[in-house]
Amino acid sequence: MNAVLYNSDGSIYSVLFGGAEEELRQDAGRMGKPCVVTEELVGVDTHYVSGGSVLPIPEKPANANAFNYQSGTWSFDISDARISKWEEIKNEREWAEFGSFSWNSHTFQCDERSQSRIMSAVQRAQLDSTLTMVWTLSDNSTVTLNATELKQVGQALSSHIDACHVKARGKRSEINAATTEAEIDAITW
Predict the structure, then answer these.
(1) What is the mean predicted confidence (pLDDT) over 84-89?
(2) Can you give the pTM of this predicted structure?
(3) CA angle 71, 77, 81 (to 5 degrees)
(4) What is the pLDDT of residues 1-32, one digit of tens each?
(5) How confident is the model over 115-142, as a mean pLDDT?
(6) How far apart are CA 72 and CA 62, in angstroms?
(7) Domain containing residue 50
(8) Which of 19, 8, 165, 183 is nearest to 92 (CA)?
(9) Are residues 87 and 16 in the same domain?
(10) Where are the alpha helices (DSSP H) in the chain?
């Protein structure tokens, strides 16, 4: 036997396992919680109590839902939706930031290693105005860049990264302002 102690909303507070029914009811009474005695294996996060019966919580339909113990249904939760959407936007921002960027009709890779290589080349260009380098582009073609052009590529990289973060901050504002599921769903990168 198990005693399922529950809160007034039907959420399970605790489960006392084993023992005689009367002992379990006495223990539950000392804890000041109503209880249901059952032989079922019950989980605090997988069940709830309604009308004196222990019921399984249905499968969660989406991340941005909260279980309403009183109605026994899932409903949209704006707080969870905002958190989930912000994680989605951050992932998209990272994908964009570390993907590629363009300068002078050339497309450059900008993963972390590429960003480091570009900034190293920019530093060399600042020290040596006669520097020229053959640079491999994202499509594996090459272009010869002089010191001035290398600095411009560095500036383009910096602008690209900044633009990604500016866009993400705007999306964060949209997320915080959203009040409905439809508004949250409409926010995309």
Answers:
(1) 96
(2) 0.70
(3) 155
(4) 889 999 999 999 999 888 788 888 888 888 88
(5) 98
(6) 16
(7) 2-57
(8) 165
(9) no
(10) 21-30, 78-97, 112-127, 147-177, 181-186
- Kindly state whether residues 16 and 84 are assigned to the same domain: no
pLDDT of residue 18: 81
Question: Which tokens hold the place of 38?
Answer: 């059952």
Mean pLDDT of 160-189: 97
- For residue 129, the surrounding DSSP H or E stretch is none
Shared domain for 50 and 102, answered yes or no, is: no
pLDDT value at 101 more than 80 = yes
What the block records as the tokens of 14 is: 């605790």
Whether 93 and 169 map to the same domain: the answer is yes
Of 14-23, 77-86, 148-157, 170-179, which range is least confident?
14-23
pLDDT at position 62 over 80 = no
Domains: count for the chain = 2
* DSSP H/E element including 68: strand 65-68
Residue 174: inside a domain, yes or no?
A: yes
* Spatial CA neighbour of 146 closest among 167, 171, 175, 125: 125
Same-domain status, 48 and 83: no
Partner residues linked to 3 by β-bridges = 16, 37
3-class SS letters over 86-123: HHHHHHHHHHHHCCEEEECCEEEECCHHHHHHHHHHHH
Residue with tokens 């084993």: 18
